Amino acid sequence: MIKVRARAGESIQQMVKRFKKMCEKEGLIRDIKRNSYYEKPSERNRRKRRKAQRAATLASR
Fold first, then answer.
1. How many domains does the chain have?
2. Which residues form the domain of 18?
3. What count of other Cβ atoms lies within 10 Å of the Cβ of residue 52?
4. Residue 34 falls within a domain, yes or no?
5. In the chain, pLDDT over 90 holds for what percent of residues?
6. What is the pLDDT of residues 28-56, one digit of tens each?
7. 4 within a domain of the structure (yes/no)
8. What is the pLDDT of residue 2?
């Protein structure tokens, strides 16, 4: 769970901006978008394979 506490002299807009950055960093927005529709297991496996392949190529550089 992400919690944002007010810093001294911090406005609400700054707190919201910090909260959004934390959500993006944790990957919450991406997960919510991904779970908003049904994804077939074969598509999920294909996506995971592609992600692993990209990671392997980057690691080999």
1. 1
2. 12-60
3. 10
4. yes
5. 61
6. 888 888 889 999 999 999 999 999 999 99
7. no
8. 85
